[in-house]
Amino acid sequence: MPLLQSIVHRLDPTLDGERLSVTAASEPHPQESAAMETLVGELNATYNTKPKGWGRFVDGQAQGFAHELRAYLDEAQDFAAFTQTLTERLSTALAEHLSVGGYLLFTHQQQGETQTLFLALVHQRDGIGLNAAHHAEPAAQLNTRQLTLSARINLTQWQEGEAATQYVSFLKDRGGKKLAEVIAQWLGVEEGVDAPAETRTLLKAFSDYVEKEDLEDEESREKTDALVGYANEQLRRGEPMTLDELSEVVDEKQPKAFYEHIRHADYGLAAEIPPDKRTLNQFRRFTGRAGGVSISFDSHLLGSSVEYDESADRLIIKQVPKQLKEQLKHRD
Questions:
Q1: Which CA distances in Å does 146 have to 50, 114, 295?
Q2: Sign of torsion, CA 45 48 51 57?
Q3: Positive or negative, the Cα torsion across 38, 42, 45, 48?
């Protein structure tokens, strides 16, 4: 991923612990740097696997993150000044929520036709290295697998205007709810999508689609693998799933079928859905067909709506589907 600009500022708690001091870099990092590209690549990979909040900048901001970002993109201020201003504001916002120092990395990067601004607070950890004489000695390393805070703005989507509704993402770990709120406020973002809830609704829509189409076991598994594969690829790339593209992946012969199913059933899904890793990891379909009986259900139902008694070789369904229940009532 080509780096158009990158810079690193440092945040350190003061001795009294009441605020964070900023040691700013005076100029951007040299562009041609394999080490910086590797660092940014590792941070992006870590970021893509983390739970995130998604949204857009609040309209009508006369100042703040979006205002500074616009000034930078319009070349009204340079990258160093732009990022230093934001770092100073962040240090004030974080004073009550961060007690350790770190390096705040900003990168302006491009992949294909898409430009993004990525930022991450990276902490340093102690390690052991070898010097020129092959003697062991202390060596500080950046911990790229653990991020305290991070965010990404899809600049290309933002500049498209009203059509884009979730071009900002930021870390939102369950254990750091308050910190996530501070970051959202600093970014000037209003959340528009609940990624776990949207992903669960999408998987429910897919399960309903599979049931409606009455697919054979093998075909059902193929479509499930296709959906999960596409979702994980978008997760790896740090991009949302789009319903029309997903529909094509799920059924190449009928590329609009799944999309039309979602629209006609009115699941209330957005056109773009940020994939949630935890929800995807829990998704799997159990299917079986024998002796005129066909059974298919989502793995997350096992232990709640569906119980399996292995010793008695018995499957217990607690909540019979309404349609099946009506058929059983009127079987005579």
A1: 10, 26, 42
A2: positive
A3: negative
**DSSP type of residue 174:** G
Q: Find where tokens 């990158």 sit.
A: 6
263 and 166 co-located in one domain = no
Residue 17: the pLDDT is: 64
Same domain membership, residue 203 and residue 66: no
Question: DSSP letters of 209-253?
Answer: HHHHHT--HHHHHHHHHHHHHHHHHHHHHT--EEHHHHHHHH-SS
How many C-alpha atoms does 80 have within 13 Å on its Cβ side? Answer: 8
Please tell me the distance from the alpha carbon of residue 45 to that of residue 287, in angstroms, as a whole number. Answer: 34
How confident is residue 271, by pLDDT bands cut at 50, 70 and 90? confident
Q: How many domains does the chain have?
A: 2
Same domain, 187 and 268: no
Tokens 């589907």, residue located: 321
Which segment, 52-61, 253-262, 271-280, 295-304, is predicted with the most confidence on average? 253-262
Name the pTM for this structure.
0.69
Domain of residue 143: give its range: 3-193
